[in-house]
């Protein structure tokens, strides 16, 4: 039987570079964060994982509105969380350069 997990995406920006992190909440209440280096960081709870992400200046992607996104230097129309078939394949997609503005 497959474990019930819930994934949420978080994003931080540094200039025109986006850094993604995935929060995965496991059925048992523990959590893990896949960071931009491809490391999986374990946490004893969803709250402690969220606190670590917020301390690192990440924001919940689902919680962003266009005004918040523009204040961070990007538009919601130009970004979406990375997608891949495996965590290994995600590793190269966790940092995105948005390029310059004309």
Can you describe this structure?
Helix content is about 20%, strand content about 30%. The chain is of the alpha+beta class and about 100 residues long. The protein has a domain at about 1-65. A hairpin with a 4-residue loop joins strand 2 (about 15-25) and strand 3 (about 30-35).
What keywords describe this structure?
102 residues; 6-stranded antiparallel β-sheet; 3 helices; 20% helix
How is this fold's topology laid out?
Layout (H helix, E strand, L loop, with lengths): L4 E10 L2 E10 L4 E4 L5 E4 L2 H10 L3 E2 L5 H6 L15 H4 L4 E3 L5
Antiparallel strand pairs: 1-2, 1-5, 2-3, 2-6, 3-4
Tell me, briefly, the overall form.
Answer: globular
Structure classification: alpha+beta
Give a short account of the largest sheet.
6 strands, antiparallel
Strand content: 25-35%
Which percent range fits the helix content? 10-25%
Q: What is the straight-line distance between the termini?
A: 51 Å
Note the total helix count.
3
Record field, number of beta strands:
6
Summarize the structure.
With 102 residues, this protein is of the alpha+beta class. It has helices at residues 46-55, 66-71, 87-90, and strands spanning 5-14, 17-26, 31-34, 40-43, 59-60, 95-97. Helix content is 20%, strand content 32%.
